[in-house]
């Protein structure tokens, strides 16, 4: 019981910090006109997604840590699974789009304004969300049609694909193959596009003559690349595999990386290390202080 209370406290603090950090980004980008560029609008989308993503998993996990009877209805489980797949896929698409946006800004600065217009931003952002919505349908539909005829104990802290497939008494061969192919297509393609964008950015940075400019830009991009690698690495490790016989404890540990750790780190990596964002925060604070002084 004591270790569950400890896990509850740690999870609660991480969840609150994740919400505060991402909502803070959304508010700052909304309030500061200078941040109404595609780069920060993508970041605003990403922060909203992270709020939804963690809220899909963490509150139910926290309530179960303190509950004597840890349960979830079948419809609730399928809803959680769909939101998890839909939001996880959308995050992959948005990360690839954000990396492409940074590639254009760093590698093709003179053409950036022509290529990345407000119309382009809307198409890319909407495309990421809509594609994510449709990505979630097939695996959730197939899993919802499986039979669960024994003692339905999910050995996980949320309704994930692997423990549900283990729990089913149906033949899951076709479902596993479809999930594997879909995961391979989405995760591998998005990761390769994101990685390629950052490698081209780093290649361009190495050509910068100024040592200080090179150091600052490389520091920012390497931080982004670290978080992206953690997220994609965990997701690919769990889902791009032909069979789902991973040990439950390892599954849970790796799942914490992309459901709790990366959403917590993202506000720090993508905004608080950004000079333009920090400058915007100071301007908002100054305006607020001046209004109160009048």
Automatic annotation (TrEMBL):
It comes from the Eukaryota. It holds the Pfam family 7tm_4. It is found in: Cell membrane. Its main location: membrane. Residues 21-270 form the G-protein coupled receptors family 1 profile domain. The chain crosses the membrane at residues 6-30, 79-100, 121-144, 177-202, 223-241, 253-272. InterPro entries: GPCR_Rhodpsn, GPCR_Rhodpsn_7TM, Olfact_rcpt. Coiled coil: none annotated. PROSITE patterns: G_PROTEIN_RECEP_F1_1, G_PROTEIN_RECEP_F1_2. It is a multi-pass membrane protein. Keywords: Cell membrane, G-protein coupled receptor, Membrane, Olfaction, Receptor, Sensory transduction, Transducer, Transmembrane, Transmembrane helix. Belongs to the G-protein coupled receptor 1 family. This is Olfactory receptor. It comes from Willisornis vidua (Xingu scale-backed antbird). The gene is OR11L1.
